[in-house]
Amino acid sequence: DTGVSQDPRHKITKRGQNVTFRCDPISEHNRLYWYRQTLGQGPEFLTYFQNEAQLEKSRLLSDRFSAERPKGSFSTLEIQRTEQGDSAMYLCASSSGLTNEKLFFGSGTQLSVL
Amino acid sequence: AQTVTQSQPEMSVQEAETVTLSCTYDTSESDYYLFWYKQPPSRQMILVIRQEAYKQQNATENRFSVNFQKAAKSFSLKISDSQLGDAAMYFCAYFPDPSFGNEKLTFGTGTRLTIIP
Fold first, then answer.
1. CA–CA dist A61, A7 (Å, integer)
2. Which among A34, A95, A106, B76 is placed 20 to 30 Å from A3, CA to CA?
3. What is the rounded distance in angstroms from the CA atom of residue A63 to the CA atom of residue A55?
4. What is the 3-class SS of B66-117, one letter each residue?
5. What is the pLDDT of residue A52?
6. Mean of the per-residue pLDDT values for chain A?
7. Which of A101, A103, A112 to mutate to test binding with chain B, by most B CBs within 10 Å of its CB?
8. Which of B104, B106, B109, B112 to probe the A interface (max A CBs under 10 A)?
């Protein structure tokens, strides 16, 4: 197992386009988190899943954002009608049921909206 | 809501010397977890050290140790024998006790650490 995997590493898109990111957590980790990080800031929580159930969504997650984890394994984060303010690093993390507080992070997807 | 404050945007230290990064937090809970994460230029978040609030003993991991002052809500990170590879952004983070729900990491704004050769 090589850790949390995110795809793509970089995404450049034009304003108004839709984008989708994928996260593959560490095997058998039942918790999966999405965070957003802008330059010079700490990561901000977006949402998290316990298996396939989405347990909490941040107010940062506008109606244009949707996240899924249909089979309790990988997750996707979709942003519709992207805006320049969506430009950020999107980080995924996972944790196991035994130590929910220990989050392991992926390398992130850097989104640039032109 | 919990908040995490890192008041030092940037710090620098001579190679092989010791440096301390500061962090304070605000919570009304008695049980929780505190973390330091390192984010090098690759932007991968790497867990450095973890402290459980119910443990009085300060956590240590090789050259990294913490000074946890629960009453003062202070959680500083000490890096001994600083190495060039320690250069990174360091984030302090808070995770509540699971019994309270709201189970997510809250991060500070980070401290950029520069190592001077």
1. 20
2. B76
3. 17
4. EEEECCCCEEEEEECCCCHHHCEEEEEEEEECHHHCCCCCEECCCEEEEEEC
5. 92
6. 92
7. A101
8. B104
Residue-level length of chain A: 114
**A20: burial class by Cβ within 10 Å (0-12, 13-18, 19+)?**
middle
Q: Is A25 touching B (CB cutoff 8 A)?
A: no
What percent of chain A shows pLDDT beyond 70?
A: 98
Please identify which residue in the block is written with the tokens 């992130």: A108
Q: Which of residues 40-99 of A touch B (CB under 8 A)?
A: 40-45, 48, 55-56, 89, 91, 93
- The residue type found at A93 is A
Using the 8-state DSSP alphabet, how is residue B9 labeled? Answer: S
